[in-house]
Amino acid sequence: MSPVTHFLVGWAVANTTSLDRRSRALVTIAGVIPDIDAFGAVPEMLTRNTNHPLAWFTEYHHILGHNIGFAIAVIALSTVLAKANRWKTALLVAISFHLHLLGDVVGARGPDGYQWPVPYWLPFSSRGQWVWSGEWALNAWPNFVITGILLLWTFWFAWYAGRSPLEMVSLNADREFVATLRRRVPRHAN
Q1: What is the Cα–Cα distance from 88 to 79, expressed in whole angstroms?
Q2: Residue of 187, 189, 181, 150 lying closest to 163 (CA atoms)
Q3: DSSP label at 162?
Q4: Model confidence over 132-174: pLDDT tens digits?
Q5: How far is 83 from 67, CA to CA, in rounded Å?
Q6: What is the pTM of this model?
Q7: Domain boundaries, given as residue ranges, for the chain
Q8: How many CA atoms does the CB half-sphere of 109 hold within 13 Å?
Q9: CA 4 to CA 92: how far, in whole Å?
């Protein structure tokens, strides 16, 4: 699944219960953070045609951030960073993180047909990778449908609840976005 889809899944999980703004951000970020190992693509592209190419994306994507060891670290750090509802935040961070892994298992096959296995038990064991033979391509229609549904839900939720993912970066931008949505689609009085 795309980073946008992972982000929206994290945001949806963060809003399944009452959490403060910081905890919602932690849960949302947990839905995207496994892909931090994708940043190896930059040095790999920059060194592709050199005498010493770095295969950091090819070798480490879906390895460093897609495992139980990294999940434990993310959950522990989120628990420390949460100011309130620490255990609820930790649980939702774990769910958001694992939904990312599940999304990659079902819908992240590469254009060359490569199925990205998820080495879940690393660093404790290299056995038992998650892989599904029915994994659809990253650009397949189910990913677009899931992303579309999540976008619609995000807009509806912003209109209904008065907050959007923009709250993670700017409360003013969030208020303006919600106000604009509500002006464009006013609530009808019954």
Answers
A1: 9
A2: 181
A3: S
A4: 999 999 999 999 999 999 999 999 999 999 999 999 999 999 9
A5: 26
A6: 0.91
A7: 3-135
A8: 16
A9: 19
